[in-house]
């Protein structure tokens, strides 16, 4: 896949998407959001890809926010369309992707950058990472899911404080909050993420996709997550991966999942 604003690679079932706008601290403009949409969808239907890692180019930033110059003169209707389209094209897409997505947060993850990281299924941070939602300092609020996902991850009170102060927290504080799972030296970040991805890849991709769906259901208004779990649990019994996994267990051998 050839893009102008992102780089993609695939190796041994692990895909890496790198946002490549280092002179803009990898800020998310409209074109980058569209390219990310295309890359995530392409990797999600690629049967060879079992895990996706998303990160930013360079040592300074994962994504240092949205590209403010693109919307500084928007009116009310244009602002609403911007948020709605962005959520549809990228943030909701990533959250509900059937392929696990790990955000490798290298440096600043601010505004739309933190919102992208939060849309991933979980986050690993470099020790120099800084995270925050500074939108209120610009007279606006987070519009790519930040007001919803941050409280889910860190709790209402901490989310309120982070959003109202427009401040940043460091990697260790983010780990203490539950915003990131691990903090590692920046030089080890991608390899660490690949190590976790390798563990994920030993398991059934069909079962993992069903688990993602069931977990996400708990955060959807009007949806009973327990019912979704029951349904997806039952559906798993009709898969080849279930037959392979149980047979391998009984035969005391390593399962070889086909993702079917």
Give a description of the structure:
This protein is α/β, with parallel strands linked by helices and 260 residues long. The protein folds into 2 domains: 6-200, 2-enoyl-CoA Hydratase, Chain A, domain 1; 205-250. The protein is built from 10 helices and 10 strands. A 6-stranded mixed β-sheet has the order 1-2-3-5-7-10, with helices on both faces. The chain has a 4-stranded mixed β-sheet with strand order 4-6-8-9. α1 (30-45) links the parallel β2 (14-19) and β3. The longest helix has 20 residues, at 76-95. The two termini are 25 Å apart. The model has no long low-confidence stretch (mean pLDDT 95).
Which key terms come to mind for this protein?
globular; four-stranded mixed β-sheet; 17% strand; alpha/beta; 10 helices; six-stranded mixed β-sheet
The structural class is alpha/beta
Major sheet size, sense and barrel closure: 6 strands, mixed
- Count of strand segments: 10
β-strand percent reads: 15-25%
The CATH architecture of the largest domain would be: Alpha-Beta Complex
| Count of all domains | 2
Helicity range: 40-55%
Please give the order of strands in the largest beta sheet. Answer: 1-2-3-5-7-10
State the separation between the terminal residues, measured CA to CA: 25 Å
CATH superfamily label of the largest domain: 2-enoyl-CoA Hydratase, Chain A, domain 1
CATH class category label of the largest domain: Alpha Beta
- Enumerate how many helices there are, as a single number: 10
The succession of helices and strands, N to C, reads EEHEEHEEHEEHHEHEHHHH
User: Low-confidence spans: pLDDT under 50, at least 5 residues?
Assistant: none
